[in-house]
């Protein structure tokens, strides 16, 4: 058991029979009444986001999530195959459970698979990934001074806004939390 006063971003807890990851939290001490913790939680099974308020000092169960390093191998129809780097065991995840993560996954990419006991919860991506631009309008000389952006389609099918100087074939570093351009690789 863990106190809600000890919440931190990324902590995984069990509440009402569900597995939740703390995305954001705020300790509130009103002038009148008891203190409480306002939190934003994401369900690891469904992906749903919920705001929940806890009384200060309330105890919740901490969920033990194991992150196993695996390599993304290939798509087999609607299933996506991952291989454990140590034991060479393979698991399949349905596309519906990793819909967001598929925008960043390339073959042979190493990721962490979140496991709760024997249940596979999903894929944990690195903070940034390196992807190649497959389609974008050509940059025009002199456009870089304005600081504007244009759409670009990357090798995984992800569409992001990039600066004018980015061309087809460029390798870009993309932030996986908000699908935004970071820099050229």
Automatic annotation (TrEMBL):
User: So, what pathway does this thing act in?
Assistant: Protein biosynthesis; polypeptide chain elongation
SMART domains according to UniProt: EFP, Elong-fact-P_C
**Major localization listed first in the record, in broad terms:** cytoplasm
- Name the keywords, alphabetized: Cytoplasm, Elongation factor, Protein biosynthesis
Look up keyword Cytoplasm and say if it applies: yes
A Pfam family the protein falls into: EFP_N
Report the function annotation for this chain.
Involved in peptide bond synthesis. Stimulates efficient translation and peptide-bond synthesis on native or reconstituted 70S ribosomes in vitro. Probably functions indirectly by altering the affinity of the ribosome for aminoacyl-tRNA, thus increasing their reactivity as acceptors for peptidyl transferase.
Name of this chain's protein: Elongation factor P
Name the source organism: Cytobacillus spartinae
């Amino acid at each position: 058991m863990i106190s809600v006063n000890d919440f931190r971003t990324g902590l995984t807890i069990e509440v009402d029979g569900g597995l939740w990851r703390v995305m954001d939290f705020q300790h509130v001490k009103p002038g009148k009444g008891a203190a409480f913790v306002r939190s934003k939680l994401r369900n690891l099974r469904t992906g749903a986001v919920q705001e929940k308020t806890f009384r200060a000092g309330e105890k919740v169960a901490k969920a033990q999530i194991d992150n196993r390093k695996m390599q993304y191998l290939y798509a087999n129809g609607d299933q996506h195959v991952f291989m454990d780097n140590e034991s060479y065991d393979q698991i399949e995840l349905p596309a519906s459970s990793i819909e967001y993560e598929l925008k960043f996954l390339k073959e042979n990419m190493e990721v962490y698979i979140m496991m709760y006991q024997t249940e596979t919860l999903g894929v944990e991506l690195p903070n940034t990934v390196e992807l190649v631009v497959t389609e974008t309008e050509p940059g025009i000389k002199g456009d870089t001074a304005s600081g504007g952006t244009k759409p670009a389609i990357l090798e995984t099918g992800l569409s992001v806004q990039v600066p004018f100087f980015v061309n087809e074939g460029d390798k870009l570093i993309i932030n996986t939390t908000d699908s935004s351009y970071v820099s050229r690789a």
